[in-house]
Design brief:
Elements (H helix, E strand, L loop, with lengths): L2 H18 L12 E6 L4 H15 L4 E6 L6 H12 L6 E3 L4 H7 L7 H6 L2 H4 L2 H6 L1 E2 L2 E2 L1 E8 L2 E5 H6 L8 H13 L3 E4 L4 H25 L10 H12 L12 H9 L3 E5 L3 H8 L8 E5 L7 E10 L7 H11 L2 H11 L15 H10 L6 E3 L9 H16 L5 H19 L2
Parallel strand pairs: 1-2, 1-3, 8-9, 11-12
Antiparallel strand pairs: 3-11, 4-5, 6-11, 7-9, 7-10
Helix pairs in contact: 2-13, 2-15, 10-11, 10-17, 17-18
Length: 426
């Protein structure tokens, strides 16, 4: 039995247990309280979550915070599954990408059609965002903000002191690297943590092949795409970038943010939640630091969309869940959350004049439409968990072990894609 099948079977058992659980999980005494499970645990993420918590409190809704640490939501997803199997599901949880549909197939998610119609979500949301929360004609989640993964953050003061411009091409990037090294500054901050390495790689893949090839490889899993020279070039660039990173060790992304803030590194490639963290550290966008698209991806948007799903744990909670969903889509709430989180609002009717220079660039790129967009694999937008985990593991192994050739990792990735495709047909 596949891992996905085991999860489905386990969750169905949980559903059956919940149905007969005497008194239910949530009693009437907690009718105005909603447990919210998520992975927003850094300083900036906590500020964004507290902002939502306070806004909901103004409307009489208590946000009972269940924050699970762990990069890219790895820990939170495990806790969510465990809580269901233990008959203690949260009323609300952060779910993104294909996982929304997977949980909906189990009958565990509250449909928000009524709220969406009343708020005219279909007209207000970007088309990609609207499609994301759909499953068989029903609305499954509440999108909160759109992150741009292909973002290069740089220490503006170092760049100005050395007379450097942020690189737009890889040739310019290599020139900046040499100048920073000559000045005694580590050019590129990077953790050896698997998800962070894979995040860097997927931006290189986008730069090399554009959104269409990215989707062929990581969404459609076209087996011919794994022997494409564009994949080989992205892998080789990942390996070449090691010389710009200095000594590598596993560290949280927040530590890398502090390195950039302290001027220990000149640049970092990371989703724009990194910008939110720099703001939380007291740095101003466009002053101490700024950001540009990763070289040769200016027209593209590698995205991840924060989304909350309402779980069907108690019918008494549905009115409260509906109110929460409605409140989270108010333009002022969307803007306030995004300013703290580093993302952009999911509403295309938002006033972008209130956004900083980095967010405006993200907004304009995303607004170009689906042809210029690519769903992040690492951040759960492009694929199911088994495929994502397999790719991340292979990229990390390649990055850490220089004896593995580019051709070998291409073969391994193709073999994995084939094996998982065959398993899915069983």
């Amino acid at each position: 039995m596949s891992e996905a099948a085991k999860i489905r079977q386990g969750c169905w058992l949980a559903v059956m247990a919940i149905a007969v659980f005497v008194g239910g999980v949530c009693s009437s005494a907690r009718a105005e309280t909603l447990d919210v499970l998520h992975w927003w645990t850094s300083a900036s993420e906590r500020k964004a979550a507290v902002f939502l918590e306070r806004r909901l409190a103004e409307d009489g809704i208590t946000w009972r915070d269940v924050a699970i640490p762990g990069g890219a939501g790895v820990g939170a997803v495990k806790v969510l599954k465990t809580r269901f199997l233990a008959n203690q599901p949260p009323a609300v949880a952060q779910l993104i990408g294909p996982s929304l549909a997977e949980w909906a197939q189990l009958g565990l998610i509250v449909e928000l059609d009524e709220v969406a119609r009343a708020g005219n979500w279909q007209d207000h949301f970007f088309p990609t965002t609207w499609q994301l929360v759909q499953y068989k004609g029903h609305v499954l989640g509440v999108p909160l903000g759109i992150h741009r993964i292909n973002t290069l953050h740089y220490n503006r003061q170092i760049f100005e002191r050395l007379g450097l411009r942020p690189p737009r091409t890889w040739k310019e990037f290599d020139q900046v690297v040499r100048r920073l090294q000559a000045a005694g500054v580590t050019p590129l901050g990077q953790s050896s943590e698997a998800w962070q390495v894979a995040t860097l790689f997927e931006t290189l893949l986008l730069a090399e092949g554009g959104p269409a090839y990215y989707r062929e490889l990581l969404v459609k899993r076209n087996l011919r795409a794994y022997q494409d020279p564009r994949l080989a070039k992205a892998l080789q660039r990942l390996r070449d970038l090691r010389s710009a990173m200095g000594p590598l060790r596993e560290r949280p992304w927040t530590d890398v943010a502090r390195q950039l803030a302290a001027g220990e590194v000149g640049m970092v490639v990371m989703g724009d939640w990194f910008k939110g963290e720099l703001n939380a550290l007291g740095l101003s966008t466009g002053d101490e630091f700024s950001c540009v698209p990763v070289p040769e991806t200016a027209d593209y948007h590698l995205y991840s969309i924060d989304t909350l799903a309402m779980f069907a744990v108690d019918d008494k909670l549905k009115p409260l869940q509906f109110r929460m969903a409605q409140l989270l889509q108010q333009p002022a709430v969307q803007l306030g959350f995004s300013r703290l989180k580093g993302s952009i609002p999911v509403r295309q009717d938002q006033d972008i004049g209130a956004l900083d220079v980095c967010s405006r660039a993200s907004w304009q790129a995303f607004a170009r439409g689906s042809a210029m967009q690519a769903p992040s694999l690492v951040h759960r937008m492009a694929s199911d968990e088994p495929f994502k985990d397999a790719v991340v593991a292979q990229i990390h192994r390649f990055f850490m072990d220089e004896t593995i050739s580019v051709a070998e990792v291409q073969r391994r990735l193709e073999a994995q894609a084939r094996a998982l495709a065959m398993e899915g047909k069983k």
